Amino acid sequence: MPKNCNFIEKLREVGLRPTKQRIKMCEVLYNREKTFHFTINDLVKMISEKMNEKISLATVYNTVHAFEKKGYLKEISIDSHKSYFDTNTSAHHHFFDEDTHELIDCDESDIDKINIKKNITGKKINSVEVLVRVASDNQTQK
Amino acid sequence: MPKNCNFIEKLREVGLRPTKQRIKMCEVLYNREKTFHFTINDLVKMISEKMNEKISLATVYNTVHAFEKKGYLKEISIDSHKSYFDTNTSAHHHFFDEDTHELIDCDESDIDKINIKKNITGKKINSVEVLVRVASDNQTQK
DNA sequence: ATCTACATTATAATAATTCTAAACTATTGA
DNA sequence: TCAATAGTTTAGAATTATTATAATGTAGAT
User: Fold this and answer.
1) Which of B39, B82, B116 to mutate to test the interface with A (most CBs of A within 10 A)?
2) Does the CB of A83 fall within 7 Å of any strand D atom?
3) Fewer CB atoms inside 10 A, N or C side of chain B?
4) Å from the A18 CA to the D2 C1'
5) The pLDDT value given to residue B141
6) Do B123 and A129 touch (CB under 8 A)?
7) A61-110: pLDDT as tens digits
8) How many other C-beta atoms can be found within 10 angstroms of the C-beta atom of residue A97?
9) Do B115 and A116 touch (CB under 8 A)?
10) CB neighbours of B96 closer than 8 A, spacing ≥ 6?
């Protein structure tokens, strides 16, 4: 687990000032064994639990978006009401459990590389994302 | 192009009352050569342009959601700020042009069938959606 | 024609996100 | 070291998108 000075370095590298709020968010997001998925709401709860000082909601939004822009976070949009952020920023796909509203990472080996045959003139592919929606077997299909 | 009586039939079939607002919306959405993508905002504009009578915003939301639940429309979520509906409800994938914010259908032939090797116990796959984000070649990558 | 259940409407309420402007802080370089 | 300055945080207001409410209207059945 990296110590805070690593976060300071990392933030500097991408041109973000290592303010105490950003460092605290780095700790909450990256001082853990595994990558994970969260909503802004989740994150606000997590921060206020782990911190004695307050953090403004606006700061959480700003910082999440700053991190996203710099490639520290990736957004995964499920529908107009549910949007997650992923601390795993490498290219990978997801399962979404429609019963529990849980987002599950796909390993690289779970889905073959996707071959796009269509080419849109003058455009390059930025990303290819697969979302597999699953639900309990005995439940009516969405 | 189907005439309105077909819409009345269709609505009845899925258990929706063929009210004049729903029929009007069917006309706007399905009286066209090709399927297309729209946001709620787009739709409200289109309806108010094509109609002399007013339609309430609440009705547009209700009707779109009723249509979605009955399988007349499919939602495609791009990010937390952009959500489209698609009148093409068959299983297919999409390109999203990050420059123009345009959503483009993939033909079945554009992407090979996706083989999911992972199995989540007790869960069945409801859908598999691929979103390919593209952008102008000479632009910085998102 | 009348009844009943469902739909529509305008408006209010809610929720999520962004804006604002003042106070604050990290960095720069004198 | 210490101001200058450029970027950041903050609380709260503003905005936007969506849903709820309750009164009125309408389709379909009898």
Assistant:
1) B116
2) no
3) N
4) 21
5) 42
6) no
7) 999 999 999 999 999 999 888 899 999 999 999 999 998 999 999 988 89
8) 16
9) no
10) B78, B102, B103, B104, B131, B132, B133, B134
Helix (H, G, I), strand (E, B) or coil at A101: coil
**pLDDT for B3:** 54
The tens digit of pLDDT for each residue in B88-139 reads 999 899 999 998 999 999 988 899 999 999 888 899 999 999 999 999 987 4
Q: What is the DSSP string of A50-97?
A: H-SS---HHHHHHHHHHHHHTTS-EEEEEETTEEEEES--SS--EEEE
Q: Reduced to 3 states, what is the DSSP secondary structure of residue A132? A: strand
Q: Which nucleotide is nearest to B19 (CA to C1')?
A: D27
Q: How far apart are CA B44 and CA B34, in angstroms?
A: 19
Q: What is the set of domains in chain A, with CATH numbers?
A: 4-79 (1.10.10.10), 91-134 (no CATH)
Place of tokens 């952020």: A85
Whether B55 and B61 have beta carbons less than 8 Å apart is answered as no
Tokens, residue B114: 């996706």
Reported pTM: 0.89
**Which nucleotides of strand C lie within 7 A of protein CB?**
6-11, 16-20, 25-27
CA dist A122 → A125, B72, B97, B134, B138 (Å): 10, 33, 11, 10, 9
